[in-house]
Amino acid sequence: MKTKLQAILIKQSQYSESSLILQFFSLQQGTISVIAKGIRKKSEKQQLLPLCEYELLAYEPKEQGLWLFSEANIIRNFSVYPGSATWAAAETGLELISHLIIPQEDIATIYNLTIAYLEYLKKVKSNAILIFWRFLNRITILSGIGNPLSNCCICNNALSLPSAYLKSKGGFVCENCLPEIYPNDTLLILSPPARKILLLLPEIGNHLEEITLDRAVVNEINTAFALYWQTHHKQTLHLKGLSVLTQFYNA
Ligand SMILES: [Zn+2]
């Protein structure tokens, strides 16, 4: 049966000389893989653009497997950004989505958040990685493992200033608890710029221009989020796009 879906194209990969496998994040079905037979032989105009939102017509597989592409009409174009770092942030956001196993009842929330993320990035000229981290934090919460930035993992009080990440406890440590911890190899003490960014993260959109990032700070924050994800999901979160995005910041 042919089904109409509203879907963002995450990526396309070559299947044969003439066919592509399209990975979509759809509002109705979550992430799906669609085979588009013969699409590479079609005109330029009929090629699809990753990151864009489409009205997709496709045939649902009888059992698990690939959907069969019929046609797609663009709804919103999210393939153009003010710079290549911003574009990389958009792509990394979708890569993150492609790693999730999303329960049916959460699909719409995550879909709308993703659309809002891509829409927001269209006007971000610098420091798009800050918006990516805000998105990553929201997705972390929606993935059911809590908000890493809400409470100190030692005293459990509201985290006024995230000051370190403690691997053995799987969480951030507040500035009051940090002096109490004997330095050890599971304690990652955050630099002042990293602390400030994490503190401002929920409203980071208002601070894009004033924050200066270098690769060391970017790596600190990437590492803390990755460790939190790994501990609480018991699964590594490896985002290729994030390595690319990190390259935009000077060492
Ligand atoms: Zn504390």
User: Which residues form runs of ≥5 with pLDDT under 50?
Assistant: none
Let me know the number of strands.
8
Strand content: 15-25%
CATH architecture designation of the largest domain: Up-down Bundle
Look at the structure and name the CATH superfamily of the largest domain.
Recombination protein O, C-terminal domain
Bound molecules: zinc ion
How is the largest sheet built, in terms of strand order? 1-2-3-5-4
- Alpha-carbon Rg, integer: 20 Å
Average pLDDT metric: 95
Descriptive report:
The protein has 251 residues and is an alpha+beta fold. It folds into two domains: 2-76, Nucleic acid-binding proteins (OB fold (Dihydrolipoamide Acetyltransferase, E2P)); 84-246, de novo design (two linked rop proteins), CATH 1.20.1440. Helices cover 33% and strands 21% of the residues. It is built from six helices and eight strands. The chain has helices at residues 84-98, 107-121, 128-145, 192-200, 215-233, 240-246; strands spanning 2-14, 20-26, 30-36, 53-59, 67-76, 164-166, 171-173, 187-189. The chain has a five-stranded mixed beta barrel with strand order 1-2-3-5-4. Strand 2 (20-26) and strand 3 (30-36) form a beta hairpin. The longest helix is centred in the C-terminal third of the chain and has 19 residues, at 215-233. The model has no long low-confidence stretch (mean pLDDT 95). The protein binds zinc ion. The site of zinc ion has 8 residues, from loops.
